[in-house]
Each structure stands twice: as structure tokens, then as C-alpha cells.
Automatic annotation (TrEMBL):
Residues spanning the membrane: 257-278, 290-310, 322-344, 356-376
Record keywords: Glycosyltransferase, Membrane, Transferase, Transmembrane, Transmembrane helix
GO cellular component: membrane
Membrane topology label: Multi-pass membrane protein
GO molecular function, one term: dolichyl-phosphate beta-D-mannosyltransferase activity
Record's protein name: Dolichol-phosphate mannosyltransferase
Superkingdom of origin: Bacteria
Location(s) in or outside the cell: Membrane
Span of domain GtrA/DPMS transmembrane: 260-374
Protein family membership: Belongs to the glycosyltransferase 2 family.
Keyword Transmembrane helix: yes
Organism: Streptomyces solincola
């Protein structure tokens, strides 16, 4: 990562707020954005601007040029690899911010800069650690959300997130908002401890769920039309959002074990389908059972890779992880029958409870083994 500070002379007063602005090919917007920030923020609140840029166009050059006329420091941080997308950029910005307050806003002017001092003032007045600019409060609106389709998607996403995280999002009416103020002290530990795992657009959700800011306030805002260019959000971003929800919901070990079990249950579908196909092709049912089982194992492996252990894959190579997972899954089958015999013989259980207990035991062992032997914590 490289940083540059095109504006060498800082303000006399230290900045009270760092504006963290993620940019991906926003060269047609950044000049006007800085102009509007200059017009409405520094007179009310000493500020600095920190762009976190993943652009492939000339945005960095435009920033450097526009920054010369700015009455506040402007820094551009260029990321060499755009890890985590928009959310990853914001976390990099949180790590580099210096003021007590950080305001996160988009680089396309959909978030009105003149609200920045008001968001911080609301936080100061209420003592809140997080102030969300919400489209769903009286006085707010989502005027700039182009088309009924995006409105419906945004509504469904909000409803889903609030359903999955009722406590963390209790006082957040707009968890999908990308415009908010947060006290740096509320996120500092999570940032330095590498606890944030942003995945795509919904960085507010990530911070609200993982950092649990003590009190949350909100202020209404009108989501404007984009100044220039087009949204960078794609269908892929929708898939990332669903993965992000699963990851946040399964952060606790017990929740991860339940998810592991549910994924395991879905593995019956490819398993039975393969069994049907192989026996239909004339294979004897016993070798077919063993082969079909591998389809279920592969299915489960791919799902847990993507949904449960994304941030723990780097410790081993793909083939190593796949081999270990397959070994554990097949050991499960081998161990189950002797275990049932043990439970019947030693614990004097009848066959059904013994089988249930054996299934449960091997399941817990397989989960623990997957955590410890496939994906080192
Ligand atoms: N650094 C970086 N890296 N910036 C990015 C990336 C990335 O991979 N992807 C997008 N951005 C920047 C854009 O350049 C823009 O400044 C800002 O993030 C928002 O991106 P848009 O593409 O304009 O997003 P949107 O308008 O569709 O969505 C916005 O509104 C939603 C509410 O409907 C965002 O604020 C969402 O977070 C928000 O949920
Ligand atoms: Mn936008």
C-alpha cells in the first residue's frame, strides 16, 4: 500500500473528523466532491479527507490535482490488491484515520457532504459511538436508488439483516447505508486485532455486528442521484452480501457448528443423486455407496470453504485441505459402526439411541477435526 499527501500544509487545528471515502474509478466525481466538502465542512468542523482507492482509471491523478486547492489535508491511499472490495477499502481507511471521528461516505455524491458536521454533532450531543445516516427516517428518502428493482432488493436486504441480527441492529433503521459517523475508539481494537472481515459493500453491517457500538444514533438523509458515472455494484455483489451474512451469523463457534451440520445435511442431495446415477449405470450398490459418498463430501467441502472458513484458508494449500477434509469425512463412516457396537455393548443402549449418539459423536469430532486439522484457527 502506498500513501501520498498531496497537500503538505495541514490545518492549524487537528482534524476532528477523518472522511474515509472509498473510490473505484470515480475520476469524474472526486473534484466536485472535494469542492462540496470544502464548501460545507471545514468552517463547521476541522476535517481531513482520506481516499482509499482501488481505481484502474486516472482517479489518483485527479485527486492529487484537485487536492491542491483544498483548505484541508487530502490523502490518497492506493491499495495494491483490492481485498474485501468496498468494505476492505473502508477498513484500510479506519486503520489509517487519525481523528476521533471517522465519517464513511461514497465518492459519487450520493451522500451529501453538508451532513458530515451534523452527523458528528449528533454523536457528540447524544454520546453515541455510531451515527447512521438513514434513508428510512422521516425526512430521509432513497430518491437516488434507481428503479423499483433496487428499492425492493434494498428493502429485502434490510429486512433479512435485521432478522438475523435483531440485537446488533435494534436501533439501526438503515443497516445498508454506506454513510455514517463512528468514533475511532469504537473500532480501534477490532482494526488492530484484525477482527474485521469485510466482504463487499455492507461495511456498516460488519461494524455494527462485530464492534457492537455502545449507543447508536441516527439522522435522516436523502440518498441523492449519482453525480457522474454508474454504480459499481453487480450481481456478484449480491452473492457476496449473502456470504457476508452467513459469515457474520456463524462467527461464534456454536453457530458455526450448527451451520456445518446444516451444510452436511444438504450433502445428502448430491450423495443420493450420485448413488442413483451410479447404480442406474449398473454399478453394484456397495462400491456405488462409497463413490457416491465422495460427491457429498466434495459438495460439503466446497460449501464450507466458501461460507465458513474463507479467512482461514491461507494456512494450507487447496489440495491439502481437500485431502484432509475427505479423510475426516471417510473416517467418520469407518468409525461409526464400531462406535455403535461400543454404545450397545458397554452403555447398554438400544440400537436407535446408540446410532443417534454415534452420529452425534462423529459429527462433533468431525467438526472439531475440521476446525483444528483442516483450517488451523
Ligand atoms: N476502494 C474501493 N474499492 N471503492 C469502491 C469499490 C472497491 O472495490 N467498489 C465501490 N467503491 C466505491 C465507489 O467508487 C463509490 O465511491 C462507493 O464505493 C459506492 O459505490 P457505488 O457503486 O456508487 O455504490 P451504490 O451507489 O450502488 O451503493 C451505495 O449505496 C447503497 C445503498 O443503497 C453504497 O453506499 C452501499 O454501501 C449502500 O448499501
Ligand atoms: Mn453510488
Amino acid at each position: 500500500m502506498t500513501g501520498e499527501r498531496p497537500h503538505p500544509a495541514g490545518p492549524a487545528e487537528p482534524a476532528a473528523v477523518t472522511l474515509v471515502i472509498p473510490t473505484f474509478n470515480e475520476s469524474a466525481n472526486v473534484r466536485e466532491l472535494l469542492r462540496r466538502i470544502a464548501e460545507s465542512v471545514p468552517a463547521r468542523l476541522p476535517c481531513e479527507v482520506l481516499f482509499v482507492d482501488d481505481s484502474t482509471d486516472d482517479t489518483p491523478a485527479v485527486i492529487a490535482d484537485a487536492a491542491r486547492d483544498c483548505p484541508f489535508p487530502v490523502t490518497a491511499l492506493h491499495r495494491e490488491s483490492p481485498d474485501g472490495g468496498l468494505g476492505g477499502a473502508v477498513v484500510a481507511g479506519l486503520a489509517a484515520a487519525t481523528a476521533d471521528w471517522v465519517v464513511v461516505m461514497d465518492g459519487d455524491l450520493q451522500h451529501p457532504p453538508h451532513l458530515v458536521p451534523e452527523l458528528v454533532a449528533t454523536g457528540e450531543r447524544t454520546g453515541a459511538e455510531l451515527v447512521v445516516a438513514s434513508r428510512y427516517l422521516p425526512g430521509g428518502s432513497r430518491a437516488g436508488l434507481a428503479g423499483g428493482y433496487r428499492v425492493a432488493v434494498s428493502r429485502a436486504a434490510t429486512w433479512l439483516a435485521k432478522g438475523l441480527f435483531p440485537r446488533a441492529l435494534k436501533s439501526v433503521s438503515d443497516p445498508m447505508s454506506g454513510f455514517f459517523a463512528i468514533r475511532r475508539s469504537a473500532v480501534a481494537d477490532a482494526v488492530t486485532g484484525d477482527e474485521l472481515k469485510p466482504l463487499g459493500y455492507k461495511i456498516l453491517l460488519e461494524l455494527a455486528v462485530r464492534c457492537r457500538p455502545e449507543t447508536v444514533a441516527e439522522a435522516p438523509f436523502v440518498f441523492q442521484d449519482r453525480y457522474a458515472g454508474e454504480s459499481k455494484s453487480t450481481a456478484r455483489e449480491g452473492m457476496r452480501f449473502l456470504r457476508h451474512l452467513v459469515e457474520l451469523r456463524t462467527a461464534a463457534p456454536l453457530a458455526r457448528m450448527v451451520a456445518f451440520g446444516l451444510i452436511g445435511l444438504t450433502g445428502f442431495v448430491p450423495n443420493l443423486a450420485a448413488l442413483w446415477a451410479l447404480t442406474a449405470a449398473g454399478l453394484h450398490y456397495l462400491p456405488a455407496e462409497v463413490a457416491a459418498n465422495q460427491f457429498g463430501v466434495a459438495w460439503n467441502f466446497l460449501l464450507i470453504e466458501v461460507l465458513l472458513f474463507r479467512d482461514r484458508r491461507r494456512h494450507r494449500h487447496f489440495a491439502d485441505r481437500a485431502g484432509r477434509f475427505a479423510l475426516l469425512a471417510n473416517a467418520d463412516l469407518v468409525v461409526r459402526i464400531p462406535l455403535i457396537a461400543l454404545f450397545v455393548g458397554q452403555l447398554h443402549l438400544t440400537v436407535l439411541p446408540a446410532t443417534a449418539l454415534a452420529l452425534l459423536t462423529t459429527f462433533v469430532l468431525r467438526f472439531a477435526g475440521t476446525e483444528a486439522l483442516v483450517y488451523l484457527p
